[in-house]
Amino acid sequence: MRIGYPKLVYLDERFLSWNLWISSWVENDRDVRARAEALLERSESHIRTHKLKDCRADCLLTLKRALNQRLKALEEIHEFKKLDIPDKPKNYFELMEKIGIVRPLLLKKLLKIRNSIEHDDTDPPSYNQCKEFVDVVWYFLKSTNKLVSIKPTYYVTFQKLNGDGVETEYSGELKVEPNHFERVEICGWFPKSYLNENARRINCIPLNADAMHTKGEPWPDNKEHGEYGGKILTNTWVSGHMNLSATQRLDLVRKIMNI
Question: Is the predicted pLDDT of residue 231 greater than 50, yes or no?
Fold first, then answer.
Protein backbone atom coordinates (compact mmCIF):
# COMPACT_ATOMS: atom_id res chain seq x y z
CA MET A 1 0.00 0.00 0.00
CA ARG A 2 1.36 3.45 -0.92
CA ILE A 3 2.06 6.01 1.81
CA GLY A 4 -1.01 8.13 2.60
CA TYR A 5 -3.50 5.50 1.51
CA PRO A 6 -6.24 4.57 1.94
CA LYS A 7 -7.71 8.06 2.01
CA LEU A 8 -11.21 9.46 1.71
CA VAL A 9 -12.07 11.38 -1.46
CA TYR A 10 -15.35 12.30 -3.12
CA LEU A 11 -16.41 11.14 -6.59
CA ASP A 12 -18.96 13.11 -8.61
CA GLU A 13 -22.08 10.93 -8.84
CA ARG A 14 -22.64 12.05 -12.44
CA PHE A 15 -20.50 9.11 -13.51
CA LEU A 16 -23.51 6.89 -12.67
CA SER A 17 -25.16 8.33 -15.80
CA TRP A 18 -22.32 7.05 -18.01
CA ASN A 19 -22.75 4.05 -20.28
CA LEU A 20 -22.73 0.76 -18.33
CA TRP A 21 -22.62 -2.84 -19.45
CA ILE A 22 -22.28 -6.17 -17.70
CA SER A 23 -18.84 -7.68 -18.27
CA SER A 24 -19.38 -10.97 -16.42
CA TRP A 25 -22.42 -13.12 -15.78
CA VAL A 26 -23.69 -16.63 -15.16
CA GLU A 27 -26.17 -18.23 -17.55
CA ASN A 28 -29.18 -19.77 -15.81
CA ASP A 29 -30.89 -23.02 -16.75
CA ARG A 30 -33.04 -22.52 -19.87
CA ASP A 31 -35.92 -24.25 -18.10
CA VAL A 32 -36.22 -21.29 -15.72
CA ARG A 33 -37.31 -19.07 -18.60
CA ALA A 34 -39.28 -21.77 -20.42
CA ARG A 35 -41.59 -22.73 -17.53
CA ALA A 36 -43.48 -19.44 -17.44
CA GLU A 37 -43.60 -19.30 -21.24
CA ALA A 38 -45.14 -22.80 -21.36
CA LEU A 39 -47.80 -21.76 -18.86
CA LEU A 40 -48.56 -18.66 -20.91
CA GLU A 41 -49.02 -20.82 -24.01
CA ARG A 42 -51.34 -23.12 -22.07
CA SER A 43 -53.41 -20.19 -20.79
CA GLU A 44 -53.89 -18.92 -24.31
CA SER A 45 -54.91 -22.37 -25.52
CA HIS A 46 -57.89 -22.32 -23.14
CA ILE A 47 -59.52 -19.51 -25.12
CA ARG A 48 -58.09 -20.20 -28.56
CA THR A 49 -61.11 -22.20 -29.72
CA HIS A 50 -63.69 -21.56 -26.99
CA LYS A 51 -65.04 -18.44 -25.29
CA LEU A 52 -67.02 -20.23 -22.58
CA LYS A 53 -66.99 -19.03 -18.98
CA ASP A 54 -65.03 -22.07 -17.72
CA CYS A 55 -62.43 -21.63 -20.47
CA ARG A 56 -61.94 -17.99 -19.55
CA ALA A 57 -61.58 -18.91 -15.87
CA ASP A 58 -59.00 -21.60 -16.73
CA CYS A 59 -57.14 -19.04 -18.86
CA LEU A 60 -56.81 -16.61 -15.95
CA LEU A 61 -55.85 -19.26 -13.42
CA THR A 62 -53.06 -20.46 -15.73
CA LEU A 63 -51.95 -16.86 -16.28
CA LYS A 64 -51.67 -16.50 -12.52
CA ARG A 65 -49.43 -19.58 -12.42
CA ALA A 66 -47.26 -18.10 -15.19
CA LEU A 67 -46.94 -14.83 -13.30
CA ASN A 68 -46.16 -16.51 -10.00
CA GLN A 69 -43.55 -18.75 -11.62
CA ARG A 70 -41.76 -15.79 -13.18
CA LEU A 71 -41.93 -13.72 -9.98
CA LYS A 72 -40.53 -16.65 -7.99
CA ALA A 73 -37.69 -17.07 -10.49
CA LEU A 74 -36.84 -13.37 -10.40
CA GLU A 75 -36.65 -13.40 -6.62
CA GLU A 76 -34.59 -16.60 -6.43
CA ILE A 77 -32.07 -15.22 -8.92
CA HIS A 78 -31.84 -11.55 -7.90
CA GLU A 79 -33.25 -11.43 -4.33
CA PHE A 80 -34.86 -8.03 -4.87
CA LYS A 81 -36.47 -8.22 -1.43
CA LYS A 82 -33.02 -7.94 0.15
CA LEU A 83 -32.15 -4.69 -1.63
CA ASP A 84 -31.59 -1.75 0.71
CA ILE A 85 -33.20 1.10 -1.21
CA PRO A 86 -35.16 4.15 0.02
CA ASP A 87 -38.92 3.78 0.55
CA LYS A 88 -38.88 0.17 -0.57
CA PRO A 89 -42.45 -0.96 -1.40
CA LYS A 90 -43.78 -4.11 0.20
CA ASN A 91 -45.78 -5.05 -2.88
CA TYR A 92 -43.55 -7.01 -5.26
CA PHE A 93 -44.93 -5.46 -8.46
CA GLU A 94 -44.42 -1.98 -6.99
CA LEU A 95 -40.87 -2.93 -6.00
CA MET A 96 -40.14 -3.93 -9.59
CA GLU A 97 -41.64 -0.66 -10.79
CA LYS A 98 -39.32 1.24 -8.46
CA ILE A 99 -36.30 -0.67 -9.77
CA GLY A 100 -37.43 0.11 -13.31
CA ILE A 101 -38.34 -3.39 -14.47
CA VAL A 102 -42.08 -2.77 -14.85
CA ARG A 103 -43.65 0.40 -16.28
CA PRO A 104 -46.64 1.94 -14.42
CA LEU A 105 -49.21 1.09 -17.12
CA LEU A 106 -48.06 -2.52 -17.22
CA LEU A 107 -48.09 -2.60 -13.43
CA LYS A 108 -51.74 -1.51 -13.30
CA LYS A 109 -52.73 -4.16 -15.81
CA LEU A 110 -50.87 -6.89 -13.91
CA LEU A 111 -52.58 -5.85 -10.67
CA LYS A 112 -55.92 -5.91 -12.51
CA ILE A 113 -55.22 -9.48 -13.59
CA ARG A 114 -54.37 -10.49 -10.06
CA ASN A 115 -57.53 -8.88 -8.68
CA SER A 116 -59.67 -10.51 -11.37
CA ILE A 117 -58.28 -13.92 -10.48
CA GLU A 118 -58.53 -13.53 -6.71
CA HIS A 119 -62.23 -12.64 -6.74
CA ASP A 120 -63.41 -16.23 -7.15
CA ASP A 121 -67.05 -15.38 -6.53
CA THR A 122 -67.31 -13.25 -9.64
CA ASP A 123 -67.54 -14.25 -13.27
CA PRO A 124 -64.28 -14.24 -15.23
CA PRO A 125 -63.65 -11.24 -17.49
CA SER A 126 -64.88 -11.18 -21.04
CA TYR A 127 -63.10 -13.00 -23.82
CA ASN A 128 -61.57 -9.75 -25.10
CA GLN A 129 -60.32 -8.87 -21.62
CA CYS A 130 -58.78 -12.32 -21.27
CA LYS A 131 -57.00 -11.80 -24.58
CA GLU A 132 -55.70 -8.46 -23.31
CA PHE A 133 -54.45 -10.08 -20.09
CA VAL A 134 -52.65 -12.76 -22.10
CA ASP A 135 -50.92 -10.03 -24.11
CA VAL A 136 -49.92 -8.15 -20.95
CA VAL A 137 -48.39 -11.24 -19.37
CA TRP A 138 -46.63 -12.02 -22.66
CA TYR A 139 -45.08 -8.55 -22.57
CA PHE A 140 -44.10 -8.96 -18.91
CA LEU A 141 -42.38 -12.27 -19.61
CA LYS A 142 -40.68 -10.81 -22.67
CA SER A 143 -39.35 -7.85 -20.68
CA THR A 144 -37.97 -10.09 -17.90
CA ASN A 145 -36.56 -12.92 -20.04
CA LYS A 146 -33.04 -11.53 -19.87
CA LEU A 147 -33.24 -11.15 -16.09
CA VAL A 148 -34.06 -14.83 -15.65
CA SER A 149 -31.62 -15.97 -18.35
CA ILE A 150 -28.47 -14.46 -16.82
CA LYS A 151 -27.30 -13.22 -13.45
CA PRO A 152 -24.66 -10.46 -13.31
CA THR A 153 -21.65 -11.54 -11.27
CA TYR A 154 -19.32 -8.98 -9.82
CA TYR A 155 -18.09 -6.94 -12.80
CA VAL A 156 -19.77 -4.00 -14.54
CA THR A 157 -17.85 -1.80 -17.00
CA PHE A 158 -18.56 1.94 -17.35
CA GLN A 159 -17.60 4.35 -20.14
CA LYS A 160 -18.24 8.05 -20.67
CA LEU A 161 -19.59 8.96 -24.12
CA ASN A 162 -19.27 12.39 -25.71
CA GLY A 163 -22.14 14.37 -27.21
CA ASP A 164 -21.95 12.33 -30.43
CA GLY A 165 -22.16 9.02 -28.58
CA VAL A 166 -18.48 8.26 -29.13
CA GLU A 167 -16.45 6.63 -26.36
CA THR A 168 -14.10 8.96 -24.47
CA GLU A 169 -10.95 8.13 -22.51
CA TYR A 170 -12.93 8.02 -19.24
CA SER A 171 -13.81 4.46 -18.28
CA GLY A 172 -13.38 1.82 -15.63
CA GLU A 173 -14.93 -1.11 -13.84
CA LEU A 174 -17.16 -1.76 -10.84
CA LYS A 175 -17.02 -4.90 -8.74
CA VAL A 176 -20.50 -5.45 -7.35
CA GLU A 177 -21.35 -8.33 -5.07
CA PRO A 178 -24.75 -9.64 -6.23
CA ASN A 179 -27.54 -8.13 -4.08
CA HIS A 180 -25.02 -6.10 -2.05
CA PHE A 181 -24.75 -2.57 -3.41
CA GLU A 182 -23.74 -0.91 -0.15
CA ARG A 183 -20.00 -1.24 -0.82
CA VAL A 184 -18.92 -1.25 -4.45
CA GLU A 185 -15.29 -1.57 -5.55
CA ILE A 186 -14.23 0.76 -8.35
CA CYS A 187 -11.23 1.51 -10.53
CA GLY A 188 -10.95 3.76 -13.55
CA TRP A 189 -10.06 7.05 -15.23
CA PHE A 190 -11.96 10.25 -14.42
CA PRO A 191 -11.70 13.95 -15.26
CA LYS A 192 -9.81 15.74 -12.50
CA SER A 193 -12.96 17.75 -11.69
CA TYR A 194 -14.81 14.54 -10.74
CA LEU A 195 -12.55 13.87 -7.73
CA ASN A 196 -11.98 16.06 -4.71
CA GLU A 197 -11.27 15.92 -0.98
CA ASN A 198 -13.90 18.47 0.00
CA ALA A 199 -16.94 16.93 1.66
CA ARG A 200 -18.96 20.14 1.26
CA ARG A 201 -19.58 19.46 -2.42
CA ILE A 202 -23.04 18.04 -3.01
CA ASN A 203 -23.95 15.07 -5.21
CA CYS A 204 -20.73 13.24 -4.46
CA ILE A 205 -20.01 9.66 -3.42
CA PRO A 206 -17.57 8.99 -0.55
CA LEU A 207 -14.76 6.85 -1.94
CA ASN A 208 -12.07 5.16 0.13
CA ALA A 209 -9.19 5.33 -2.33
CA ASP A 210 -6.41 2.74 -2.22
CA ALA A 211 -4.56 4.58 -5.02
CA MET A 212 -4.87 7.81 -7.01
CA HIS A 213 -2.66 9.05 -9.81
CA THR A 214 -2.74 11.49 -12.70
CA LYS A 215 -1.40 10.74 -16.15
CA GLY A 216 1.17 13.51 -15.72
CA GLU A 217 2.77 11.91 -12.67
CA PRO A 218 5.33 9.09 -12.83
CA TRP A 219 3.63 5.74 -12.27
CA PRO A 220 4.97 3.25 -9.73
CA ASP A 221 4.49 0.61 -12.41
CA ASN A 222 4.61 1.98 -15.96
CA LYS A 223 3.87 -1.39 -17.52
CA GLU A 224 0.54 -1.69 -15.75
CA HIS A 225 -0.77 1.62 -17.07
CA GLY A 226 1.16 2.04 -20.29
CA GLU A 227 -1.97 1.44 -22.37
CA TYR A 228 -3.40 4.84 -21.37
CA GLY A 229 -0.92 6.88 -23.38
CA GLY A 230 -3.40 9.30 -24.97
CA LYS A 231 -4.92 10.75 -21.85
CA ILE A 232 -4.92 14.36 -20.66
CA LEU A 233 -2.15 14.86 -18.08
CA THR A 234 -4.61 15.88 -15.34
CA ASN A 235 -6.92 12.89 -15.83
CA THR A 236 -6.99 10.84 -12.65
CA TRP A 237 -6.85 7.12 -12.09
CA VAL A 238 -8.46 5.95 -8.86
CA SER A 239 -9.12 2.59 -7.26
CA GLY A 240 -10.87 1.81 -4.01
CA HIS A 241 -14.44 1.28 -2.83
CA MET A 242 -17.48 3.54 -2.78
CA ASN A 243 -19.94 3.93 0.08
CA LEU A 244 -23.22 4.58 -1.74
CA SER A 245 -26.21 6.29 -0.18
CA ALA A 246 -29.59 4.58 -0.43
CA THR A 247 -30.59 6.84 -3.34
CA GLN A 248 -27.31 6.19 -5.17
CA ARG A 249 -27.75 2.45 -4.64
CA LEU A 250 -31.19 2.68 -6.23
CA ASP A 251 -29.75 4.54 -9.23
CA LEU A 252 -27.08 1.86 -9.69
CA VAL A 253 -29.57 -1.00 -9.27
CA ARG A 254 -31.82 0.55 -11.92
CA LYS A 255 -28.92 0.89 -14.31
CA ILE A 256 -27.70 -2.69 -13.88
CA MET A 257 -31.17 -4.26 -13.98
CA ASN A 258 -31.97 -2.46 -17.22
CA ILE A 259 -28.73 -3.00 -19.14
Answer: yes
Torsion angle, alpha carbons of 8, 12, 13, 15, to 10? -120
Last residue of a domain, one of 96, 125, 150: 150
DSSP string covering 198-245:
-TTSSSEEEEEEEEEEETTSPPS-HHHHGGGTTS-TT-EEEEEEEE--
| Tens of pLDDT, residues 148-192 | 988 777 688 999 998 888 999 999 999 887 667 778 899 999 998
Which of 176, 170, 207, 146 lies closest to 7 in space, CA to CA? 207
CB of 87 closer than 8 Å to CB of 37: no
| Beta bridge partners of residue 242, listed in sequence order | 184, 207
The parent domain of residue 172 ranges over 7-24+153-257
pLDDT single digits (tens) 98-156: 888 887 777 677 777 777 777 666 778 889 989 998 999 999 999 899 889 887 776 88
Tell whether 205 is covered by a domain. yes
Adjacent-strand bridge partners of 11: 195, 205
Shared domain check, 72 and 102: yes
Is the separation of the CB atoms in 212 and 192 below 8 Å?
Answer: no
**What percentage of the chain reaches a pLDDT higher than 70?**
86
Residue 185 lies in a domain: yes
The domain that contains 123 carries what CATH number? 1.20.120
Helix (H, G, I), strand (E, B) or coil at 34: helix
